[in-house]
Amino acid sequence: DTAVSQTPKYLVTQMGNDKSIKCEQNLGHDTMYWYKQDSKKFLKIMFSYNNKELIINETVPNRFSPKSPDKAHLNLHINSLELGDSAVYFCASSLQGFDEQYFGPGTRLTVT
Amino acid sequence: LAKTTQPISMDSYEGQEVNITCSHNNIATNDYITWYQQFPSQGPRFIIQGYKTKVTNEVASLFIPADRKSSTLSLPRVSLSDTAVYYCLVGPRRGSGAGSYQLTFGKGTKLSVIP
User: Fold this and answer.
1) Closest Cα of chain A to B37: distance in Å?
2) pLDDT in tens, A44-74
Protein backbone atom coordinates (compact mmCIF):
# COMPACT_ATOMS: atom_id res chain seq x y z
CA ASP A 1 0.00 0.00 0.00
CA THR A 2 1.32 3.42 -0.94
CA ALA A 3 1.82 5.63 2.11
CA VAL A 4 1.87 9.00 0.32
CA SER A 5 0.51 9.17 -3.19
CA GLN A 6 0.43 11.99 -5.69
CA THR A 7 -1.42 12.42 -8.94
CA PRO A 8 -0.52 12.97 -11.65
CA LYS A 9 3.07 11.79 -11.82
CA TYR A 10 3.74 13.91 -14.90
CA LEU A 11 2.01 17.10 -15.93
CA VAL A 12 2.75 19.00 -19.11
CA THR A 13 0.82 22.17 -19.72
CA GLN A 14 1.03 25.55 -21.36
CA MET A 15 1.70 28.91 -19.81
CA GLY A 16 -1.36 30.60 -18.41
CA ASN A 17 -3.24 27.40 -17.64
CA ASP A 18 -4.55 26.41 -14.22
CA LYS A 19 -3.69 22.97 -12.86
CA SER A 20 -4.00 20.95 -9.69
CA ILE A 21 -1.87 18.26 -8.08
CA LYS A 22 -3.47 15.92 -5.61
CA CYS A 23 -1.89 14.31 -2.58
CA GLU A 24 -3.21 11.68 -0.23
CA GLN A 25 -1.65 9.92 2.74
CA ASN A 26 -3.00 6.80 4.43
CA LEU A 27 -0.69 6.94 7.44
CA GLY A 28 -3.04 8.76 9.77
CA HIS A 29 -0.62 11.68 10.00
CA ASP A 30 -1.70 15.12 11.16
CA THR A 31 0.79 17.21 9.17
CA MET A 32 1.23 17.45 5.41
CA TYR A 33 3.64 19.45 3.27
CA TRP A 34 4.30 20.61 -0.26
CA TYR A 35 7.86 21.01 -1.47
CA LYS A 36 9.27 22.27 -4.75
CA GLN A 37 12.48 20.85 -6.19
CA ASP A 38 13.89 22.84 -9.06
CA SER A 39 16.33 21.84 -11.78
CA LYS A 40 19.26 22.51 -9.47
CA LYS A 41 17.81 20.00 -7.01
CA PHE A 42 17.18 22.56 -4.27
CA LEU A 43 14.36 21.29 -2.09
CA LYS A 44 12.24 24.10 -0.71
CA ILE A 45 9.18 23.91 1.45
CA MET A 46 6.13 25.75 0.18
CA PHE A 47 3.32 24.96 2.56
CA SER A 48 2.54 22.89 5.61
CA TYR A 49 -0.83 22.00 7.05
CA ASN A 50 -1.50 20.53 10.47
CA ASN A 51 -4.87 18.88 10.78
CA LYS A 52 -6.28 20.99 7.94
CA GLU A 53 -4.85 24.23 9.32
CA LEU A 54 -2.15 26.15 7.45
CA ILE A 55 0.97 26.46 9.63
CA ILE A 56 3.69 27.28 7.12
CA ASN A 57 3.34 29.49 4.09
CA GLU A 58 6.74 30.32 2.70
CA THR A 59 7.32 33.07 0.19
CA VAL A 60 5.31 31.55 -2.61
CA PRO A 61 3.38 33.45 -5.28
CA ASN A 62 -0.29 33.66 -4.46
CA ARG A 63 -0.95 31.79 -7.70
CA PHE A 64 -0.25 28.73 -5.58
CA SER A 65 -3.09 27.78 -3.29
CA PRO A 66 -3.11 24.68 -1.11
CA LYS A 67 -6.39 23.08 -0.18
CA SER A 68 -6.90 20.52 2.54
CA PRO A 69 -10.40 19.00 2.49
CA ASP A 70 -9.44 16.65 5.33
CA LYS A 71 -6.24 15.76 7.12
CA ALA A 72 -5.48 12.93 4.72
CA HIS A 73 -5.45 15.16 1.66
CA LEU A 74 -3.49 18.25 0.68
CA ASN A 75 -3.99 19.40 -2.88
CA LEU A 76 -2.02 22.10 -4.65
CA HIS A 77 -3.74 24.36 -7.13
CA ILE A 78 -1.69 26.58 -9.40
CA ASN A 79 -3.21 29.45 -11.38
CA SER A 80 -1.75 31.14 -14.45
CA LEU A 81 1.19 28.80 -14.77
CA GLU A 82 4.56 30.30 -15.70
CA LEU A 83 7.71 28.78 -17.18
CA GLY A 84 9.46 29.14 -13.83
CA ASP A 85 6.92 26.85 -12.21
CA SER A 86 8.48 23.90 -14.00
CA ALA A 87 9.86 21.64 -11.28
CA VAL A 88 9.18 18.47 -9.35
CA TYR A 89 6.62 18.95 -6.60
CA PHE A 90 6.73 16.63 -3.62
CA CYS A 91 4.03 16.05 -1.09
CA ALA A 92 5.00 14.75 2.34
CA SER A 93 3.39 13.94 5.65
CA SER A 94 4.49 13.45 9.23
CA LEU A 95 2.82 12.38 12.43
CA GLN A 96 3.20 15.86 13.87
CA GLY A 97 5.33 18.89 13.25
CA PHE A 98 8.90 18.09 12.46
CA ASP A 99 8.68 14.35 12.92
CA GLU A 100 10.01 11.98 10.31
CA GLN A 101 8.48 12.94 7.00
CA TYR A 102 7.24 10.48 4.41
CA PHE A 103 7.49 11.80 0.88
CA GLY A 104 5.39 10.99 -2.14
CA PRO A 105 6.89 10.00 -5.49
CA GLY A 106 6.73 13.53 -6.86
CA THR A 107 4.90 15.25 -9.71
CA ARG A 108 7.06 16.53 -12.53
CA LEU A 109 5.44 19.69 -13.85
CA THR A 110 6.57 21.04 -17.20
CA VAL A 111 5.25 24.37 -18.38
CA THR A 112 5.75 25.13 -22.06
CA LEU B 1 16.43 30.73 10.65
CA ALA B 2 18.95 27.92 10.93
CA LYS B 3 20.81 27.65 7.63
CA THR B 4 22.74 24.55 6.74
CA THR B 5 25.89 24.04 4.70
CA GLN B 6 27.05 20.72 3.27
CA PRO B 7 29.71 19.65 0.78
CA ILE B 8 28.27 19.58 -2.71
CA SER B 9 29.65 16.16 -3.55
CA MET B 10 31.71 13.27 -2.21
CA ASP B 11 33.17 10.13 -3.70
CA SER B 12 33.82 6.89 -1.87
CA TYR B 13 34.79 3.33 -2.69
CA GLU B 14 32.56 0.44 -1.82
CA GLY B 15 33.06 -0.90 1.66
CA GLN B 16 34.40 2.32 3.10
CA GLU B 17 32.86 4.38 5.86
CA VAL B 18 31.53 7.72 4.67
CA ASN B 19 31.14 10.79 6.86
CA ILE B 20 29.11 13.76 5.63
CA THR B 21 29.24 16.90 7.71
CA CYS B 22 26.57 19.57 7.91
CA SER B 23 27.18 23.01 9.41
CA HIS B 24 24.33 24.79 11.17
CA ASN B 25 25.84 27.65 13.13
CA ASN B 26 22.51 29.29 13.92
CA ILE B 27 20.79 26.20 15.24
CA ALA B 28 18.16 27.06 17.85
CA THR B 29 17.78 25.45 21.26
CA ASN B 30 14.73 23.43 20.28
CA ASP B 31 15.98 22.44 16.82
CA TYR B 32 16.59 18.84 15.85
CA ILE B 33 18.85 17.62 13.06
CA THR B 34 17.46 15.24 10.49
CA TRP B 35 19.04 13.57 7.51
CA TYR B 36 17.28 12.38 4.38
CA GLN B 37 18.42 10.34 1.41
CA GLN B 38 17.14 10.93 -2.11
CA PHE B 39 17.56 8.69 -5.13
CA PRO B 40 16.97 10.04 -8.65
CA SER B 41 13.30 10.42 -9.53
CA GLN B 42 12.18 9.58 -5.99
CA GLY B 43 11.10 11.52 -2.95
CA PRO B 44 13.52 11.92 -0.03
CA ARG B 45 13.60 9.15 2.55
CA PHE B 46 14.22 9.65 6.27
CA ILE B 47 17.53 8.26 7.53
CA ILE B 48 18.09 9.48 11.07
CA GLN B 49 17.26 12.27 13.51
CA GLY B 50 19.04 13.52 16.61
CA TYR B 51 19.37 16.37 19.10
CA LYS B 52 22.76 15.88 20.71
CA THR B 53 25.66 13.45 21.16
CA LYS B 54 25.19 10.29 19.14
CA VAL B 55 22.28 8.47 17.58
CA THR B 56 22.56 5.14 15.82
CA ASN B 57 20.10 3.04 13.87
CA GLU B 58 20.34 0.13 11.50
CA VAL B 59 21.55 2.22 8.56
CA ALA B 60 23.56 5.15 9.93
CA SER B 61 24.97 7.04 12.88
CA LEU B 62 24.61 10.72 13.63
CA PHE B 63 27.25 12.53 15.63
CA ILE B 64 26.43 15.92 17.15
CA PRO B 65 29.09 17.81 19.17
CA ALA B 66 28.25 19.63 22.36
CA ASP B 67 27.88 23.04 20.67
CA ARG B 68 25.50 21.51 18.09
CA LYS B 69 26.79 23.82 15.39
CA SER B 70 27.52 20.92 13.12
CA SER B 71 26.59 17.30 12.71
CA THR B 72 28.07 14.31 10.91
CA LEU B 73 26.18 11.56 9.19
CA SER B 74 28.18 8.35 9.16
CA LEU B 75 27.38 5.56 6.72
CA PRO B 76 29.26 2.35 7.51
CA ARG B 77 30.61 0.23 4.66
CA VAL B 78 28.81 1.92 1.78
CA SER B 79 27.65 0.01 -1.26
CA LEU B 80 26.77 1.12 -4.78
CA SER B 81 23.14 1.40 -3.72
CA ASP B 82 24.09 4.19 -1.30
CA THR B 83 24.78 6.48 -4.25
CA ALA B 84 22.29 9.28 -3.67
CA VAL B 85 21.89 12.86 -2.49
CA TYR B 86 21.91 13.33 1.27
CA TYR B 87 20.12 16.29 2.83
CA CYS B 88 20.63 17.80 6.25
CA LEU B 89 17.53 19.40 7.76
CA VAL B 90 17.29 21.54 10.88
CA GLY B 91 14.11 22.50 12.66
CA PRO B 92 11.99 22.17 15.81
CA ARG B 93 10.45 18.80 16.44
CA ARG B 94 7.31 20.20 17.94
CA GLY B 95 6.04 23.67 17.27
CA SER B 96 3.80 25.77 19.42
CA GLY B 97 1.70 27.09 16.59
CA ALA B 98 1.87 28.79 13.26
CA GLY B 99 5.34 29.89 12.30
CA SER B 100 7.05 27.58 14.76
CA TYR B 101 8.15 25.13 12.14
CA GLN B 102 11.25 26.08 10.21
CA LEU B 103 12.12 23.43 7.70
CA THR B 104 15.42 24.31 6.08
CA PHE B 105 16.89 21.73 3.75
CA GLY B 106 20.55 22.03 2.91
CA LYS B 107 21.59 21.97 -0.72
CA GLY B 108 22.41 18.33 -0.36
CA THR B 109 25.54 16.26 -0.77
CA LYS B 110 25.76 14.03 -3.81
CA LEU B 111 27.49 10.85 -2.73
CA SER B 112 28.94 8.69 -5.48
CA VAL B 113 30.05 5.20 -4.50
CA ILE B 114 32.69 3.74 -6.77
CA PRO B 115 33.12 -0.01 -7.29
Assistant:
1) 11
2) 888 888 887 887 777 788 999 999 999 899 9
Q: Where in the sequence is the domain holding A88, given as residue range(s)? A: 4-111
Q: How far is B4 from chain A (nearest CA, A)?
A: 12
Q: Which of B32, B101, B109 to mutate to test the interface with A (most CBs of A within 10 A)?
A: B101
Tens digits of per-residue pLDDT, B24-67?
A: 998 989 888 999 999 998 999 999 999 999 999 999 999 999 99
Question: What is the domain count for chain A?
Answer: 1
- Identify all chain A residues contacting B100, using CB atoms and an 8 Å cutoff: 55, 97
> DSSP readout, chain A?
--SEEEE-SEEEE-TT--EEEEEEE-S--SEEEEEEE-TT--EEEEEEEETTEEEEE-S--TTEEEEEEETTEEEEEE-S--GGG-EEEEEEEESSTTSPPEE---EEEEE-
CB pairs under 8 A between A and B: 67
Domains identified in chain B and CATH numbers: 9-92+103-114 (2.60.40.10)
